[in-house]
């Protein structure tokens, strides 16, 4: 039987068998990828360039945009390249790198979402202590802790997963290298060690989710006691997008990682992977900007400036000629 030392490459899941459908999937994912690059890139530029957005909430949103860009860039370009060139192969080292970066970026993103829930709790429930609890140093430390925790978990899971002997071939039933799918290739009971570590990690994820829910229970109680309807509207506008992002992320990740490896529903597995690795990076900019007037104003100001600069450049070029 082959083991991990004899596996030089893995075969990823193909989205379609016919060339026409393959090209259709390529075009669809290319559109999603470009939308994610554009949306997150605009948020990064707006937050960096507009001094009014230099606050803890937007600092964490900037970090979230960076993580989203990294997450979707780890999985989608390889899947698109395989679809375009009609291949399924990914090298052993490339697969390990995908697992490392997906776990790192997704873990850091979830930790950051937890920190963002704390930020909203302090802003609404303890506004007088906001400056002391969420100063620039505290924000930097919390962001660093989110990135660091994601990296530690990623190294642990990647090393643990790829130390397992692989006895069930090299076909991964997913469009990127995902730990539950790799565990299905391991020998009979050898996957139990990594499965146990995954359960512990998912338990921590659930614990963070409980913290987020309890934080928002306190937030909503405080919001409902606000006398001003405008104040309530603004508070809900800041909190509801975050709750939508967290709910989508947690539900799909728990579905993907809590199932036994022997239980396989290919279409559901594929949908869950797309929902937690592809959809959030593309829709998060829209979710966070749709109900956020400050961010919309900053984005409008940025686009207006870009159009004005382009017009001035074109006019100067015409004068020179």
Automatic annotation (TrEMBL):
GO terms for molecular function: G protein-coupled receptor activity; olfactory receptor activity. PANTHER family: OLFACTORY RECEPTOR (PTHR26452). It comes from Aythya fuligula. Residues 39-288 form the G-protein coupled receptors family 1 profile domain. Belongs to the G-protein coupled receptor 1 family. This is Olfactory receptor. Keywords: Cell membrane, G-protein coupled receptor, Membrane, Olfaction, Receptor, Sensory transduction, Transducer, Transmembrane, Transmembrane helix. PROSITE patterns: G_PROTEIN_RECEP_F1_1, G_PROTEIN_RECEP_F1_2. It is a multi-pass membrane protein. Its main location: membrane. One of its GO terms (cellular component) is plasma membrane. It is found in: Cell membrane. Odorant receptor. The keyword Transmembrane applies. Pfam families: 7tm_4. The chain crosses the membrane at residues 23-45, 57-76, 96-118, 138-156, 195-217, 238-258, 270-288.
